[in-house]
Amino acid sequence: MPPLLEVGRLNVQFRGERGWVTAVEDASFTVAPREALGIVGESGSGKSVTALALLGLHPPGTRIGGSVRYGGADLLRLPPRAMRRIRGGDIAMVFQDPMSSLNPVLTIADQITETLRLHQGLTGAAARRRAVELLDMVRIPDAARRLDEYPHRMSGGQRQRVMIAIAIACAPKLLIADEPTTALDVTIQAQILDLLRELQERLGMSVMLISHDLGVIAEFAQRVMVMYAGRVVELAPAAALFARPLHPYTELLLRAIPPVDADVARLPTISGAIPDPEERIDGCRFRPRCPFAQASCAIEPPPLLEAGNGRLTRCPPRLAA
Amino acid sequence: MSDGPVVSVEGLCKDYPVHGQMLHAVRDASFAIGPGETLALVGESGSGKSTTGRMLVGLTPATAGRISVLGETITGPGGAARLARVRRHLQLVFQDPGSALDPRMRAGSSLAEPLVIAGKGRAERAARVAELLELVGLPQSAARRFPHEFSGGQRQRLCIARALALHPSLIVCDEPVSALDVSIQAQIINLLLDLQDRFGLSYLFIAHDLAVVRSVSHRIAVMYAGRIVETADRRALFETPRHPYTRALLAAVPVPVPGRPPRPRIAGELPSLLDPPKGCAFHPRCPLAVERCRVETPALRTVGERHAAACHLAGDG
Amino acid sequence: MSEAAVAGGTRLARRRRFPILRRLLRHGSFRIGLVLVLVLVIAALCAPLITNVDPTAMRIRFRFRPPSQDFLFGTDMFGRSVFARVLYGARLSLWIGLAVALLSGAVGAMIGVLSAQWRRLDGLMMRLMDALAAFPAIVLAIGLGAALGPASGSLIIALTMAYVPRTARVLRASALVIRELDYVEAARVSGAGSLRIVLRHLLPNCMSPLLVQMTFVFAYAILAEAALSFIGIGPPPPAPSWGNIVAEGRDYAVEAWWIMLFPGIAISLAALGMNLLGDGLRDVLDPRMKIET
What we know:
The complex is a heterotrimer.
Chain A: E1 5-16, E2 19-31, E3 36-40, H1 47-54, E4 63-70, E5 73-74, H2 80-86, E6 91-94, H3 98-101, H4 108-120, H5 124-137, H6 143-146, H7 156-168, E7 174-178, H8 186-203, E8 206-211, H9 214-220, E9 223-228, E10 231-237, H10 238-243, H11 248-256, E11 305-306, E12 312-313, H12 316-320
Parallel strand pairs in A: 3-8, 3-9, 6-7, 7-8
Antiparallel strand pairs in A: 1-2, 1-4, 4-5, 9-10, 10-12, 11-12
Helix pairs in contact in A: 4-5, 5-7, 7-8
Chain B: E1 7-18, E2 21-33, E3 38-42, H1 49-56, E4 64-69, E5 72-73, H2 79-86, E6 90-93, H3 107-117, H4 122-135, H5 152-164, E7 170-174, H6 182-199, E8 202-207, H7 210-216, E9 219-224, E10 227-233, H8 234-239, H9 244-252, H10 291-295, E11 301-304, E12 307-309
Parallel strand pairs in B: 3-8, 3-9, 6-7, 7-8
Antiparallel strand pairs in B: 1-2, 1-4, 4-5, 9-10, 10-12, 11-12
Helix pairs in contact in B: 3-4, 3-5, 4-5, 5-6
Chain C: H1 3-10, H2 19-26, H3 28-45, H4 47-50, H5 82-117, H6 119-134, H7 137-148, H8 152-178, H9 182-189, H10 194-205, H11 207-230, H12 242-249, H13 257-285
Helix pairs in contact in C: 3-5, 3-13, 5-6, 5-8, 5-10, 5-11, 5-13, 6-8, 7-8, 8-11, 11-12, 11-13, 12-13
């Protein structure tokens, strides 16, 4: 099956204090139809920047290279008008903070019907009927009445449901969810993840879930891409990745998470700190923190290598061993 | 130091007037923390866990109830004077290390501030600052730097160092690792454990992440809508949770093991503190709720060894 | 201590010193503002080096000379060199601007931060500020001028009183935010008293909004000095200020336009320069505008 979205050698650079700062370097990946792809990384990994760049939502003055193939076109080279049609239509997005993503002076109905009008030309009673339907789909009880409320009357979880309703309004082929549950309470987070999974199945869409939480990724994704300091370090089917991580960073990160189902005296740690984006590190960016680092790791940036069974890793010494 | 608890809390309440109504942020909380012990307060937003922590260090006055620190009652009439006496034994570590350090003060001055307030001389301060940096694994050169020159994990080390300055007995840690990256969290957790072993510190560890809580605490109190609904030793709470809310919370924790069978979720939203449900605050979301839960607020009662739950349906033993 | 913990701490991020100064100097409008203000200040300070003409020396023979090689900005109705008067006038005008900015900054900061820290003071102080703000600056200046005599001192006091409420409110708002921040609470947990919190934490951290506010007040004060001089309650002649040069040239605006034009340009440049400086400072110092990468 041909992929829905194909990202090739994506590079994103921002203007820093001393020249250009690379936020994403050489990221290549695909999203298949109906697939749940998880992107996991810590701060400065470039996971959110990647998502924003796909939709042309990066701040002005950003330098972007590579390609994003979608439906025979390269999204990076699309004129702004065409891009706006795809954004919110074919490809929709849900953000982390449901508090600031909704306009506080408009009712829920206003905000949902705006999307319907822009992308599907739906107005009046038809738009309202569809809005109620959407709120039902995201399981907001008593949808017809809640439609005329303002966002401040709703809890964080309900606002995130409204955001999801707006995102799925035009039956997107791909939903990009950037930390959609991070700002929510634990029990509400579980509900939202369940909802996303259910909607994905029901609408047959692909979902790209971005999170710092390996637990959330494990619960949701079929395939997982791990990013560190702007580079994709590992890409693998979820089960294989969590069972046998190939990259030292993935392995150490998994071990550093405190387990909820076992008692441990001390957690294994990853030494050092996440590098500053402006800091220059030759070769592998994880090398200063990597207990397995060899002399060869410092020479050149390691390439992303095939490791069989649809797996990729950016650690040649590990792969050779 | 005596073998009695470092801090004991009885019937602690905190009400806030909001638009003519009373918001009950904390209701009837009782617990004790022994020397070298960690009590974790777990809950979601509005559970009252942070308010409880703030009352413990004297940042928020209690509406009712009693807090005793090293035998001194710091609440009620004359409490302020007694709080001043035990002040140095109580410290606080915040969630966001970015806002917990004055951006215009060098790290050394931030660490020395408690010592200045306590009236220590210049030489003594310099020696203690050097010692503190060593304790939290930062180089001596850190003293001359400003907060923005540190990473998040390093800033949290500085906050912990500042909290240690006056040799406290109890440190209230309010979500100390939740703002940190996963690969940094474990470093800070281990640092807190090492310091506890070394100095016999007691911690009140406030967190929403049950996995983090399991790795640091000896005892755990679960809070919901201002009340402690279950309290138990670590193992008992994680392996035989008795309150349905605790069970729901455990089931909701995402675990990095793909393909696990879906666990039972609870529906519904967190209750409003201005208009909490009658009876047990959890009953609208509880899968087991019966008529009694709708009318009668369950009291915290013993359900096992050092294990108590506030649920009508949690049987004895 | 575990090995990992030590290793985790030793590598400190290397960042450049004075990052704010660097960003300010890269900020376009700040640079233009800085150049404008520096040129005017240097001109004012070095006036005796630039021209050896006494700004108050009258030479009736040379009345109303248009700008020429001999009289760069022309001469006024008493034959005084407008060039020399504008140069020396810069001293008085800039001094009034600076004095008003510093005074209203100091008083406003004090009132703002104190009412943020001592909430019982707050109600009273803010009502007082409201009353002061409601009082027109011009009437205040006329009143003070009548009471204290027409001197630049009374003008400075009047303008200071007019700008204190604004500064106090801005500072109070900043201090109210800062006093809730964790580092202030940490100080409180360590037993810090209110005075220590005000002096060590609130005031230093309010410096950015204060500085921004002061540059704007500086610009307003220069404009206000001109406006008040125009209606005859500015610094008294013969000592030149930009305001009173313009005021004196008013009657000859058509036949000797240069008397008003050159001080007018100076006033505009000074106000523009200070405003640009203020904009730059605000962009760089205001955390809400900071772009995180």
